[in-house]
Amino acid sequence: MIVASHLSPLPAGIRRGIAAPALKAGLAGLVCAFLSVPAALAFDGNAQGPQGSGQVAFGAVAPLTPPLDVPLAPAVRPVDEAFRTGAQAIRAGQTAKGIDALGYAAAQGHAMAQWKLGRIYADGDGVKRDDAKAFDYFSKIANTHAEDYPGTPQSRFVANAFVALGSYYLVGLPAAGVRRDPQRARDMFQYAASYFGDADAQLQLGKLYLGSVDGMPRDPRNAGRWLTLSAQKGQFEAQALLGRLLFHGDSGVPRQAARGLMWLTLARDAASRPEDKWVVEAHEEAFAEATSSERSMALTYLEGWLKTAKR
Question: In b/e form, how buried is each residue of 193-230, taking b as 16+ CB within 10 angstroms?
């Protein structure tokens, strides 16, 4: 089994180098129509026939070829069809059929199929949760697609695979032979955050620099940098953490109560799950502590943000 820990080291510890049937029927009709004309002109405008008689000899018609600009339908690869079949089966609740088709596509190196299977096993979605299998699928993606062009649809899933691997390294995964390695986790987050600009990876880096993991140096200023990048992309947890950091201030981060309250307000509006209760509480605490002028300024900032976001 190839695991992401076998990636060659980089500055951040991550490898950087990782003719159509429809036309035939139409052409046949054209040939018949052409041959039914007693006399015709050549494509150069001159009559053609035996010894320049001006008659067109039977069977002497110039061959017709399809126009060069007629698009041909792209061939569907069996692996792509297997992925589509698997994804449709999963959506329809046919888990066994879906996993079988996705497994075929994943074995052929289909990154989307590998990611889908990784998420299914990581979340226990219709199957028994199996983090070792999930780790294996995410590792395959990281090892072969680390340099996919950022901004493409597939690159989002590659970045997510790096984030998933980083999360496993934070706690360790004995079933897959993976020891706890916070530094390796940070490398995974750093790569996805920097190269792919992934908001979730930027959030995870911000949390690490806020001291969420024992053994990692605390750096509030660096945390604020990554949380800002993530918050600007709409990641509400990053907005909440950034808001709390700015509202209270920290080492190297001056207190900016109004700006912090603005981010907390945005985060609170997006917090809807039971596990997001901490976001609501952080907003309520800051709002109660803020002065009237800070609340007024926060509202001004919020209005400006919303106008910009709608463009």
Answer: bbbbbbbbbbbbbbbbbbeebeebeebbebbbbbbbbb
Tell me the β-bridge partners of 41.
Answer: 47
Q: pLDDT digit string (tens) for 131-164?
A: 999 999 999 999 999 999 998 989 999 999 999 9
Cα first-last separation, the chain: 47
- Do 169 and 7 touch, CB atoms closer than 8 A? no
Backbone angles phi, psi at 47, to 5 degrees: -65, 140
| Residue 52 DSSP code | G
Rg (CA), the chain: 30
Tokens representing 117? 């299977």
Contacts 24+ apart (CB under 8 A), 128-137: 131/168, 131/173, 131/175, 131/176, 132/173, 132/175, 132/176, 134/164, 135/3, 135/164, 135/165, 135/168, 135/173, 135/176, 135/178, 136/1, 136/2, 136/3, 136/176, 137/106, 137/161
The residue-averaged pLDDT of 94-103 equals: 94
Query: Rounded to whole angstroms, how far apart are CA atoms 159 and 192?
Result: 5
The CA distance from 238 to 261, in Å, is 13
CA distances for 158 relative to 30, 66, 200, 210, angstroms:
51, 41, 12, 26
Tokens of 53: 């008689």
Instruction: From residue 246, give the alpha-carbon distance in Å to each of 18, 220, 236, 241, 287.
Output: 38, 10, 15, 9, 13
- CA–CA distance, 304 with 290 (Å, rounded to integer): 20
pTM value is 0.74
Q: d(Cα 235, Cα 223) in Å, to the nearest integer? A: 15
Dihedral sign, CA of 209, 225, 146, 7? negative
- Around Cβ 62, how many Cβ atoms within 10 Å? 9
Residue 87, both tokens: 């994804």
